[in-house]
């Protein structure tokens, strides 16, 4: 029995739910979903303040100032940022004020330096400000109690800025899940180590750990486990306690040494084919209550399976919506063929020209082509029943590096 992509996605997503909220220091919250509404605890600005370096005045005193008949006022002091000793301005006087500093009681306009002689003892004012000109009123931007960000909103740099500005050191957010990444195969070697005639470097666990991190989660790269089911289970169990999700690569097809399948079948993990290419052999189940997604070993299959099944699981754990990357439409620059009955995720390179978004197929459909994978920025999604597409056809694509 072959499952559809949606059936397997649903199997994985049914087993995960958003993690309980925690208090997160502001900068660590970048990319996280807020777990509760944020209301302003203070006004922004917090007090009437000057938008210019200049002189705070009572407007009535300078209403008639002009080049032809300037007004001269005594300067009674200076109000710097964080140094606001002059709290009240009497009639018939001016006080120097810097941008952002509190406008004193009584003053109702600021005259910028450029309209004056910049005097220290007295100031000559050659232009009259309009009422309230260059005064930024308290609460102009944000008022106390105002709903600023809703639960579920993703914290980005601009939101971090706002949260800090209202004085929050931490926010209540869904934490980053810890995702354990394990690659299986007795042929695998660590990058940097010596290669034998029959060994290859372990690209997958690095690729998957990087994808976990890019998704906003915390990767725990365990690395290589050989094709021995006992050793695999021991290693897996050693890491379950502090894992929210486990991702394995390799050992799930029809071989004589398919270690993941052998080890986890007895644990009740589901294994079977999914109607997609690459990524046909898949598996998923709970081991000691922890969701384990078992991806095929071919590197391109592993990457695409991560994108289709693991990324939505991570995003669900993080409370991020939508769970799966939205598809966009693009114009195909070259024809391609696709197997009947399987959804193909063909690698592509998306660009823009005068006619809009286009996509060029990159490399062939085979799932060992890591060189081409690294030169792609998109997946062209060819539906199960479509076996050929021509130049100029509209296709659905997943833009792999887009933020959503
Ligand atoms: N008789 C059949 N054979 C295969 C079938 C099938 O249906 N019948 N399916 C093929 C498909 S499709 C895939 S995909 C692979 C999946 O195999 P496994 O998940 O068991 O993966 P392995 O056999 O361990 O490895 C496959 C391939 O990928 C290389 N690999 C594995 N791990 C890594 C790694 N960490 N870094 C880089 N490369 C890795 C490995 O050396 C193999 O070349 O099965 C097909 N066979
Ligand atoms: O389906 Mo396998 O995952 O193509 O190479």
Automatic annotation (TrEMBL):
<keyword id="KW-0808">Transferase</keyword>
<keyword id="KW-0500">Molybdenum</keyword>
<keyword id="KW-0460">Magnesium</keyword>
<dbReference type="Pfam" id="PF00994">
    <property type="entry name" value="MoCF_biosynth"/>
</dbReference>
<dbReference type="InterPro" id="IPR001453">
    <property type="entry name" value="MoaB/Mog_dom"/>
</dbReference>
<dbReference type="GO" id="GO:0005829">
    <property type="term" value="C:cytosol"/>
</dbReference>
<dbReference type="Pfam" id="PF03454">
    <property type="entry name" value="MoeA_C"/>
</dbReference>
<comment type="similarity">
    <text>Belongs to the MoeA family.</text>
</comment>
<dbReference type="Pfam" id="PF03453">
    <property type="entry name" value="MoeA_N"/>
</dbReference>
<protein>
    <recommendedName>
        <fullName>Molybdopterin molybdenumtransferase</fullName>
        <ecNumber>2.10.1.1</ecNumber>
    </recommendedName>
</protein>
<dbReference type="GO" id="GO:0046872">
    <property type="term" value="F:metal ion binding"/>
</dbReference>
<keyword id="KW-0479">Metal-binding</keyword>
<dbReference type="InterPro" id="IPR036135">
    <property type="entry name" value="MoeA_linker/N_sf"/>
</dbReference>
<dbReference type="InterPro" id="IPR038987">
    <property type="entry name" value="MoeA-like"/>
</dbReference>
<dbReference type="GO" id="GO:0061599">
    <property type="term" value="F:molybdopterin molybdotransferase activity"/>
</dbReference>
<comment type="function">
    <text>Catalyzes the insertion of molybdate into adenylated molybdopterin with the concomitant release of AMP.</text>
</comment>
<comment type="pathway">
    <text>Cofactor biosynthesis; molybdopterin biosynthesis.</text>
</comment>
<keyword id="KW-0501">Molybdenum cofactor biosynthesis</keyword>
<dbReference type="InterPro" id="IPR005110">
    <property type="entry name" value="MoeA_linker/N"/>
</dbReference>
<dbReference type="InterPro" id="IPR005111">
    <property type="entry name" value="MoeA_C_domain_IV"/>
</dbReference>
<feature type="domain" description="MoaB/Mog">
    <location>
        <begin position="180"/>
        <end position="316"/>
    </location>
</feature>
<dbReference type="InterPro" id="IPR036688">
    <property type="entry name" value="MoeA_C_domain_IV_sf"/>
</dbReference>
<dbReference type="InterPro" id="IPR036425">
    <property type="entry name" value="MoaB/Mog-like_dom_sf"/>
</dbReference>
<dbReference type="GO" id="GO:0006777">
    <property type="term" value="P:Mo-molybdopterin cofactor biosynthetic process"/>
</dbReference>
